[in-house]
Amino acid sequence: MTVIKLEKFLGSEDRMDYLWTIKEVRRACGVPTKGVDADITGVSIDSRTVKKGDLFIALKNEKDGHDYIQKAYENGAVCAVVDHAIDGCPIEQVVVEDTFKALWKMADAQRSWGEGVQRIAVTGSCGKTSVKELLGSALTCHKSEGSYNNHWGVPLTLCRMPRDEKYAVFEVGMNHPGEIAPLSELVKPDVAIITTVAPAHIGAFSNVDEIMIEKSAIMEGLKDKKNLILPHELYVKYKSFFDVKPYTFSLDEFSQANSFVEAVQENISGQQVVAHIMGEMVSFNLYLHGKHQVANALAVLTAVKLVGGDIQTAAQNIGSQEAVSGRGKIHDINGVLVIDESYNANPASMKAAIDILKNRMGMGRRVAILGQMAELGNQTKSYHESLIPLLEGVDTVITVGDDMKVVFEGLPKNIQTVHYANQKDVNIQKLATQLDVGDIVMVKGSNSIFWKWNFVSRLINEIERLAPVRRANA
Length: 474
Prior knowledge:
alpha/beta, Udp-n-acetylmuramoylalanyl-d-glutamate--2,6- Diaminopimelate Ligase, Chain: A, domain 1, UDP-N-acetylmuramoyl-L-alanine:D-glutamate ligase, Protein-Tyrosine Phosphatase, Chain A, 3 domains, six-stranded mixed sheet, 16 helices, 21 strands
């Protein structure tokens, strides 16, 4: 792909007050630069999120973005990238052959023009979003929004990257083989992280080794192959994959990892951690629960070290990071704790979530609401069965989805509550009435079971509605 060099260079004390100009959009897309020029302060592919000064890119997916050009204009867009002229709308239009390809061309150009930005790419079977969020806090920098980690989310994050930013963090995901390499080559990261490798999306692969091959494709665009960070245990298992020894982290202080934990103290609000990061000792509070979050913090601080950031400052910054919705956020609803792990699930993340529930300090019952795990292929039954022994120590279990029935039936009778064939059958009102002050409830399942249906929000609303009844009966 031809790279166009930016003509306007910034002084060391300058800050850009715009993201793009219309002329730069045309240049990046390879179309004539004639026409109206104006500053662009944001980039959107959803007319509902458009703000004043934005560029709107009309992609074609389930819906055709061209049908929403007028709406984008009314919401304040100054320009639209389209594959045909839209008559009757006064917005400035950049006409290209393919708007999706234009998005990638713009991403490539923005990365080239922002050549001073150090970029960190994060992939893995689970923990990507948590690590991305922690990195954003540690470095106070530009990062992927939500889970924008696919073939349109990654280029969109690049298009939104300020060229005078010092650091930027990109979450890179996959569902099938061959998806990570082109995204890595687009980002061209200075540092890359593999958080974990586990049987997520294994329905598209023959085994976990193939998932490791796909995850390691994050190195395809990595500038210096040694600037890869991954769990030490993963490196030991797949040492033959690497021509150059990467940087590793471990929860075992006796390992030979570059970064490791010396001590962890769990408390009601989170964890106190003492760690060694590439030879430098650091102590910090982590307002996140679970050993996996400590491992995530090690990966983050190792990345900070590699890009030349200040470890001590970064450690204090991540201490202010709270869990995000769907990924461990804890809600205290009138004395009932709800742990929201509802965004998605695979065997590894399910184990981590169950461990958090069992280890959480509290006076009441530990209640697990578990939805089936998706994309596990012909190993679906065995992976679900593997959850049964993990649930020892949980007081009551509610399961949702056909694939979860084998779990429910394999549990001791005294912790079985109810099994629902699908999410639509769940009686949230009845479920909420069975919860008492002091109970700890953890919700975990595949995206289509809980997150898609705003299950946790609905459960919280019902618990709040019933609060006066609980007080009256107390």
